[in-house]
Specification:
Length: 368
């Protein structure tokens, strides 16, 4: 069996992409808010039912921009169970991360433990919709209203997800989407902010363009995070097929559930009620055997069989060497980080490949 990777980017036909390249070659507009960039924003607004959207060269810089445009100070409550980018964005914006434990069933920030972490230095909650599953947005908003906090969502995994009939980006002050090649929807690299307050538009445009106000004025500290026309082209083409691709992912998830739901030694996280999913990832929990954590053994055995799984998210961000000064007690996150495994999932994963992955997992579990 050839190597099966944990993700595989969807690509349009070469002919379709070449048609866009011809447009770029024809107008010589490569970046700086070109016509394809503008069209991509329009199409994304419609797809996401968003009032305001700002495109970025990647999701990380979009998240930094979100934190900076809100003029935050002091501490930001967040989760240790996330990709490094989330915490890097907080610290690089001059803020202190305060780690909160997570819920055992969906791996999102535990809203019952947030309030005890709030103090006079707290300015925001940065929650992550882990694996595309929405956080307890109602509880987070209640706390934000009570303590006058901003709410930023790292929605890197949650493109197109809805909760209780509303786009996930309609919750909180700002949501960040990542369009990295490993995501359900991608523009090679790329990212976007969706936000309610239209007054943020001007400063977001300046932040991602070196803080430039006009030809003669630079009045804020910014960076270079403008999406280019090549990224926008890929995004425009992939957006046309995203609903079809998500349906294919759903079928693959159903296949996994049918096979693995009967298999001992693992737990499959339940789907959250009221959510229309995008099936971004397929995480499972490897149960302990005789009190011994066997996730690493399973991970290695699958690799030998050319099945590339991932230990998302291990180690926890709070255990990174650069963040050990912010170490806190997060026992649920520690337990999940030690036992989680993400299996391959992408829209053209075949039924035979899913069966091979499940067979390989079953053998590895028996050996353990």
């Amino acid at each position: 069996m050839k190597k099966i990777y944990v993700s595989k980017p969807s690509l349009p036909s070469l002919e379709e992409y070449t048609d866009y390249l011809k447009l770029i070659w024809g107008n010589h507009h490569l970046t700086n808010n070109g016509p394809l960039h503008q069209q991509f924003e329009v199409d994304l607004k419609k797809h996401l039912s968003a009032d305001n959207i700002s495109l970025f060269t990647n999701g990380h810089l979009a998240l930094e921009a979100a934190l900076q445009v809100l003029d935050l100070e002091g501490e930001v409550i967040t989760t240790p169970f996330t990709f490094a980018s989330t915490i890097h964005a907080i610290v690089r914006s001059g803020l202190k991360p305060v780690f909160c434990d997570i819920e055992v069933d969906n791996f999102n920030i535990d809203t019952s433990k947030i309030e005890e972490l709030i103090n006079e230095r707290t300015s925001a909650i940065l929650a992550v919709h882990v694996f595309g599953v929405p956080c307890n947005v109602e509880a987070i908003q209640r706390l934000a209203d009570k303590y006058n906090l901003k709410v930023i969502y790292d929605a890197a995994h949650a493109f197109g997800v809805t909760y209780k009939g509303k786009p996930v980006s309609s919750y909180g002050d700002i949501s960040m989407f990542s369009f990295h090649a490993t995501k359900v929807f991608h523009s090679i690299e790329g990212g976007a902010l969706v936000f309610k307050n239209s007054n943020l538009n001007k400063n977001l445009s300046k932040i991602k363009n070196f803080g430039i106000e006009n030809e003669d004025t630079v009045d804020m500290i910014g960076f270079n995070a403008k999406m280019n026309e090549f990224q926008a082209s890929m995004g425009l083409l992939n957006l046309k097929k995203i609903r079809e691709q998500i349906q294919k992912r759903k079928q693959i998830v159903n296949h996994y559930n049918e096979r693995l739901g009967k298999m001992g030694g693992i737990l499959i996280p339940p789907e959250k009620e009221g959510v229309i999913n995008n099936y971004a990832y397929y995480p499972i929990i490897i149960k302990e055997s005789n009190g011994e954590n066997i996730r690493n053994h399973i991970h290695e055995k699958l690799g030998i069989q050319n099945v590339v799984s991932r230990k998302y998210f291990y180690p926890l961000c709070s255990n990174f060497e650069c963040y050990k000064m912010y170490k806190t007690y997060v026992p649920i996150a520690e337990k999940i980080g030690d036992s989680i495994l993400v299996l391959p999932l992408y829209d053209n994963l075949t039924s035979s490949e899913v069966n091979y992955i499940c067979d390989s997992l079953e053998v590895a579990l028996k050996e353990a």
